[in-house]
Every structure is written in C-alpha cells, then in structure tokens.
Amino acid sequence: xxxxxxxxxxxxxxxxxxxxxxxxxxxxxxxxxxxxxxxxxxxxxxxxxxxxxxxxxxxxxxxxxxxxxxxxxxxxxxxxxxxxxxxxxxxxxxxxxxxxxxxxxxxxxxxxxxxxxxxxxxxxxxxxxxxxxxxxxxxxxxxxxxxxxxxxxxxxxxxxxxxxxxxxxxxxxxxxxxxxxxxxxxxxxx
Length: 190
What we know:
The chain folds into two domains: about 25-85; about 85-185. The protein is elongated. The protein is built from ten helices and no strands. By secondary structure, it is mainly alpha-helical. The chain has helices at about 25-35, 40-60, 65-80, 85-100, 105-115, 120-125, 130-145, 155-160, 160-170, 175-185.
C-alpha cells in the first residue's frame, strides 16, 4: 500500500495522493498541459517544472541534476517546436496590459517577474512611443477606476484629486502623465 502525504485537500475529506515519480516523458506532459492552459515564458515554465520535480523528489528518490537536465531538454524541444517564444509571449502580455490601462513601468515589472530579461522587455516596448502609450493607458486607467473627470460630482472631483494622483502613481504613471490625464476634458459623457 502506498504511503499518503499528510494533509487534506481543501474542501474534501480525502488525504492528498503522493506525487508520481518524475520521468522525462512526465515532464513533457506536464509542460504541454501547462502551455495548453496558460501562456508562458521559458523561465516561467522552467520554474513550474522545477517545482513539480522538487515535489516528486521530496517523496521519491531522484537526482536533482538529472531532473535539471530533463527540464532543459524539454524546454529546448518546446522552443524548437515553436511552443515557447519569449518575444511573442512578452508582446502579447504587454498588449493586453496596455489595453487594460497599465503603465510601462508596471508592464516591465510584470514581464521581469515572468522571467524575461530587461533587454528583451525593452525591445518589446520600444516599438511604441512610451509617452503617448502611457498617456493612453492613463486615460484607460482613470476611466476604468472612475477617477478624475469620470467622477459624477464636480465637488468630489476637486477634493479627490490628490487621491487620484496617488492611485495613478501607484499604478506606475509619472506625475506629468497622471496630471495631464486627470485634467483632460471628457469627449463623451461618462
């Protein structure tokens, strides 16, 4: 009978099953399943696979160096097949975040957290004029959060200006971009 890992699954009364022993084929299946569900950078997928291999090593015997070699081989194969492309991933994430109203600083931080190098992020973001892109993103941000001109009451608008500037600063926008976005008149009714 197999030994069970202590602890219970959240919401069920059943104990957790032990992880399966790690093989190269299993790592490939885990990687493909992850990529089927989530877009990923090479470094982010490496972290996912390393976590899974570590869980398996804690329960089963295994060589960390061998698992590392398998992970690198799986990543190389996925890059060769075109399943992993850091430039395309970074451009897609940057575009999605811009459409949501994220600043260039926030985009840079998010992509760096996913394992993209600073040079790669800079190349992805250099295609756009950063001031115009940040200005447009700030407009989207204040519309989504109903800040500045999108507040219905003009008295509240004036009283909350400093709070709105602070919210834009926390989102990574410079003072000049934030101030200009808040002072812009509305083209249409909110």
